[in-house]
Amino acid sequence: MLRSSRQFIELNLRRMSSALQTESSSCCLARRICSSNFCARVDTRSIVVSRYVQNHRLLLFVRSLSSDSQNKGKAKPQKEHSSGEDSEDGTKEIVMTPGEQVVAAGRLTMWTGIGVFALCCAYYIGVELFPTKMSPNRVFDRSFEIVRKHPDILSRYGDPVKAYGRDHGGHREGRRNFVEHTKYKNEEDGSQRTRVRYNLEGRFGYAFVFAEVSNQMPSGEFVYVLVQDKSNGRVYTLVDNRAALTAQRLAAGSAEAQSAMSQLLSGGKK
């Protein structure tokens, strides 16, 4: 009896285990089918999305081509119109930013300063190379020609004598090339005057030389040429036309005044 009951229980257990195995296999099969269906759906969706993306890109490319062609078609008439305006007016307006304007103004100022500096240098070089009768160097050279040949100067200071400009206490000739001078307008006759002073050196002493020219006098003539000894202050008058210029200025009014002044200068002799 017991043996039969055990057999019955074992038989039921086997049946239940086999049923369970069958259900698990069916479930696995169902899962596989579901997973395969899901993968197929996923693959289908990815294909659809990729095709949509490709179509969208193609559409954008076509639109860009059409917009470029339209812009080119619009730009050509504008370019022709602008070229027509340039040909009619002959000018083209350039729009500059504030920074570019500042840079352009700085360059213009720099080149203007360079041009002014170059003009000043050219002027002074021209004056030095081609001096007029009123230039200090010309007055220096011509007055020294009178001084170095005057017998009183040669007997007092020896022969030869040399002349130089302002002495700064050095012994180099390059430091004494500057000639002290003054340019002014004479109030009496309104003439332009140039007055110079330079140094004279000889074996027996030193002196100052004073010379002055007027633009109303012929070239080579002086208002005065004076030499002043540095040791005792004695003045040697080499040329002095100041009285003659005063007489000429006073006699410029009438012929009678000129005659009277000439008689006065000649001591009353006709």
Helix tally equals 6
For the biggest sheet, the summary is:
6 strands, antiparallel
Strand content: 15-25%
Q: Tell me the radius of gyration.
A: 58 Å
Mean pLDDT: 74
For the record, give the distance between the C-alpha atoms at the N and C termini, rounded to a whole number.
199 Å
Structural class: alpha+beta
- Principal-axes geometry comes out as rod-shaped
Q: Spans of 5+ residues with little confidence (pLDDT < 50)? A: 76-85
Number of strands: 6
Give helix % range: 55-70%
Note the run of SSEs as H and E: HHHHEEEEEEHH
Description:
The chain is α+β, with helices and mostly antiparallel strands and 270 residues long. Helix content is 59%, strand content 16%. It has 6 helices and 6 strands.
Protein traits:
270 residues; six-stranded antiparallel β-sheet; alpha+beta; 6 helices
Question: What is the topology?
Answer:
Elements: H1 2-89, H2 98-129, H3 136-147, H4 151-157, E1 162-164, E2 180-185, E3 192-202, E4 205-214, E5 224-229, E6 235-240, H5 242-250, H6 255-265
Antiparallel strand pairs: 1-3, 2-3, 3-4, 4-5, 5-6
What is this entry, summarized?
This protein has 270 residues and is α+β, with helices and mostly antiparallel strands.
